[in-house]
Design brief:
single chain, 379 residues, alpha+beta, Butyryl-CoA Dehydrogenase, subunit A, domain 3, 53% helix, 16% strand, binds flavin-adenine dinucleotide
Length: 379
């Protein structure tokens, strides 16, 4: 049975997130983007509202609301600020969720309460200079030394890299291309851990993206996440959830584009009438709204499967593919509807267009989502 009704709890969380985005994020996002300011104050408020422990069980201080609710919340946050949105998404989906799913009792007790309150922020380090779409080609490595592992190498493109306190880091512990990868929980205070170059980016400029340097970092064996050699499987399973976060980010950016376009189309007059009276503008707005609804249903379907612990790899890839294309199209059309004004920093659609671009690149580029979907269909 398909039921599209949101529970009272979900409506309350969505409305709280919407109010938070309207009051705390949207009025400041343009300035943060310009000044490259990491919005720690906004993240702290998000934590107070319980948004940093959405997938964490109550016994470890979280709210355990699940993936569908996380998607709703992320859409609202990203509607206000995509940099804050990706920070909250990576923390919940790429750090907390795999600890909940694959962590030992000791790891859960040690990390989850701090993550749920937002006292600590989490990051996820898979990519390297030579390993992007082909993540299994990673070269960072760990060697065993007594009861410890020594990690060595450089990770690239790490979201919240300079601000997070603890990271899940994927490294090579064996020869086998896929079966030789393991995951470790690494704290920023561990000796030899460093933050390298910070990227100058087109969009999500308030979210710091950095290198992570591993200079013989000594990590206790107790910090291995999952089984030795099970890291790649864990990374891909985690990305199924992460892609729902990015699909929701796309929905949030897309909705911001739609809302800005409706407002502008009703206000701006040319040829003696609001431009929203012209059919060309009406069709753009109708298509934007319809594609966003379609992408949202795909996203919530995959999130519901994940909440019910059913496979959702293809469905998550479909959601991310559809939502990210939709966000980029909505951003392009929003700038078009705004005309010259849309090309300036006077209006936020210019930022939405820059922010939307990343949704087609990270957590698997567009063609990688197509590859995942096709593999599921063709075998
Ligand atoms: C702002 C930002 C934040 C990021 N945050 C993180 C993070 O927190 N943690 C992390 O681990 N990584 C992160 N990444 C890395 C991101 O996931 C990678 O950039 C992404 O996976 C693409 O890898 P690449 O950049 O090496 O591109 P490449 O893999 O070199 O791809 C380049 C192009 O080739 C295409 N291509 C590659 N292989 C194929 C194929 N087989 N078939 C068809 N087309 C193909 C791709 O689709 C793409 O269009 C981030 C990146 C950015 C830009």
């Amino acid at each position: 049975m398909v039921d599209f009704t949101l529970s009272e709890e979900q409506q309350l969380i969505r409305d709280t997130a919407r109010e938070f985005a309207d009051k705390e994020l949207a009025p400041n996002a343009g300035r943060w983007d310009k000044e490259l300011h990491f919005p720690r104050e906004a993240i702290e408020k998000a934590a107070e509202l319980g948004f940093m422990g959405v997938t964490i069980p109550e016994e470890y201080g979280g709210s355990q609301l699940g993936n569908v609710t996380l998607c709703m919340l992320l859409e609202e946050i990203n509607r206000g600020c995509a940099s804050t949105g990706v920070t909250v998404s990576v923390h919940n989906s790429l750090f907390c969720s795999p600890i909940v799913k694959h962590g030992t009792e000791d790891q859960k007790k040690r990390y989850l309460p701090k993550m749920a309150t937002g006292e600590w922020l989490g990051g996820y380090c898979l990519s390297e200079a030579g390993a992007g779409s082909d993540a299994a080609g990673l070269r960072c490595a760990a060697r065993k030394d007594g009861d410890d592992w020594i990690l060595e190498g450089t990770k690239l493109w790490i979201t919240t890299g300079s601000e997070a306190d603890v990271f899940i880091i994927f490294v090579r512990t064996g020869e086998d291309r896929v079966g030789g990868i393991s995951a470790f929980i690494v704290e920023k205070t561990m000796k030899g851990f460093g933050v390298g170059k910070k990227e100058e980016k087109l969009g999500i400029r308030a979210s710091p993206t950095t290198e992570i340097l591993l200079d013989n970092v000594r990590v206790p064996a107790a910090n291995m996440l999952g089984a030795e050699g099970g890291g790649f499987k864990l990374a891909l399973d985690t990305l199924d959830g992460g892609r729902l976060g990015i699909a929701s980010q796309s929905l949030g950016i897309g909705r911001a584009c739609l809302e800005a376009s409706i407002q502008y189309a009703n206000e701006r007059e040319q040829f003696g009438r609001p431009i929203g009276r012209f059919q060309a503008i009406q069709w753009k707005i109708a298509d934007m709204a319809t594609h966003l609804d379609a992408a949202r249903f795909l996203t919530w379907r995959a999130a519901d499967l994940r909440d019910r612990k059913l496979p959702c790899t293809m469905e998550a890839a479909q959601a991310k593919l559809m939502a990210s294309l939709t966000a980029n199209n909505a951003a392009r059309e929003a700038v078009q509807i705004h005309g010259g004004a849309g090309y300036t920093r006077e209006f936020p659609v210019e930022r939405y267009m820059r922010d939307a671009r990343i949704t087609e690149i990270y957590e698997g580029a567009t063609d990688i989502q197509r590859l995942v979907i096709a593999r599921n269909l063709l075998g």
